[in-house]
UniProtKB/TrEMBL annotation:
UniProt-recorded name of the protein: Endonuclease
Pfam family, any one: Exo_endo_phos
Transmembrane segments: none
Domain Endonuclease/exonuclease/phosphatase span(s) in chain numbering: 4-227
GO molecular function, one term: endonuclease activity
Entry keyword set: Endonuclease, Hydrolase, Nuclease
Species this protein is from: Neotamlana sedimentorum
Leader peptide range in chain numbering: none
InterPro entries named among the record's database cross-references: Endo/exonu/phosph_ase_sf, Endo/exonuclease/phosphatase
Length: 239
């Protein structure tokens, strides 16, 4: 199974064809428009099997799968102490594993923006995370940890590790958090401003099954977005 995560930087209807050569089974796309509210025929056809959430019809997060894959949205809570966090889209894939699509948002929070949103989400939903993938744009990196916070990037990584969920990038490339040599994002699409803020976390099943991880070529993808796609290929069980 091949899975891609990509922040398309808006207007996916004009960009989805850039993904077709990968022939992925599942795409997790941040900042994409709602297929149900666009009149773009080709985008609608490409997005025939999907789940989507967002604040506006023009910008949300979507999970797009091949038509033979069953996506079932899961009713996990996005409320933490009466505060709604965003954006998190959990689903079951073929009834076999759970996938949590992530686009961490500032959510107008003065203290719990971005990685703080995921920290809050985990406090409510960690019991749900068993055979799971957590994938998307975290808008976060260890380099921005603040010493007096307990919801830092490093704290979230630690909490996930405690339940057996680890970053596939750091396992595959044998690098430490905060020292990544392969960026996923270029601020204002400038080569001199690279950051690693997109991630794929998985339980042991996915760590063991990961065959290959690659990134879209900078020269190709900065023409269409400020993020690079991450492509993961997993061994599937033979039946």
């Amino acid at each position: 199974m091949k899975i891609i995560t990509w922040n398309c930087n808006g207007a996916l209807r004009k960009k989805f064809e850039n993904l077709t050569d990968f022939n992925a089974d599942i795409h997790i796309i941040q900042e994409c428009e709602n297929p149900a509210e666009t009149k773009h025929k080709e985008y609608n056809e490409w997005a025939e099997n999907y789940l989507w959430i967002g604040d506006t019809k023009n910008k949300g997060i979507g999970i797009f799968a091949k038509k033979n894959i069953e996506l079932k949205r899961l009713n996990w809570s996005d409320n933490y102490k009466d505060h709604k966090v965003k954006h998190f889209l959990p689903c079951s894939v073929n009834g076999d594993f759970d996938l949590l699509a992530v686009w961490n948002h500032s959510n107008k929070s003065p203290t719990f923006g971005y990685i703080g949103q995921l920290w809050k989400y985990l406090q409510v939903n960690k019991p749900n995370l068993n055979k799971s993938l957590i994938i998307g744009d975290f808008n976060s990196n260890k380099i921005w940890d603040k010493w007096d916070r307990w919801w830092n990037h490093s704290d979230v990584v630690t909490e996930l590790n405690e339940i057996g969920i680890e970053s596939l990038y750091h396992k595959y490339w044998k690098e430490e958090q905060g020292t990544e040599t392969r960026p996923t994002f270029f601020l204002h699409r400038k080569l001199e401003k690279p950051y690693h803020i997109d991630y794929v976390f998985g339980s042991k099943e996915f760590i063991d099954a990961l065959k290959e991880m690659e990134f879209g070529k900078i020269s190709d993808w900065l023409k269409v977005s400020d993020h690079l796609p991450i492509i993961c290929e997993f061994e599937t069980e033979k039946k």
